[in-house]
Write a structure and sequence with these properties.
single chain, 65 residues, alpha+beta, two-stranded antiparallel ribbon, 2 strands, 22% strand
Length: 65
């Protein structure tokens, strides 16, 4: 499976994060497929980082676990 590296920057803490994702799933998501269907193998935390940029630490601090 081919993977690509996506760099996200958290809008809260400004830290950058590297996320390795499957190429086909990433492209399907970018074309409109729901992210949880396109990349079910990723954790909810990683999917959120791709969608909003918010890292897991900031998410937990802001919204609880």
């Amino acid at each position: 499976m081919q993977e690509i590296n996506v760099v996200t920057t958290c809008p809260i803490c400004s830290n950058s994060h590297d996320v390795d994702v499957p190429y086909e799933g990433y492209m399907a998501w970018r074309k409109g497929m729901l992210i949880q269907q396109a990349m079910p193998e990723l954790s909810a935390t990683l999917r959120e980082m791709l969608m909003s940029g918010i890292c897991g630490t900031c998410w937990d601090r802001s919204f609880g676990e």
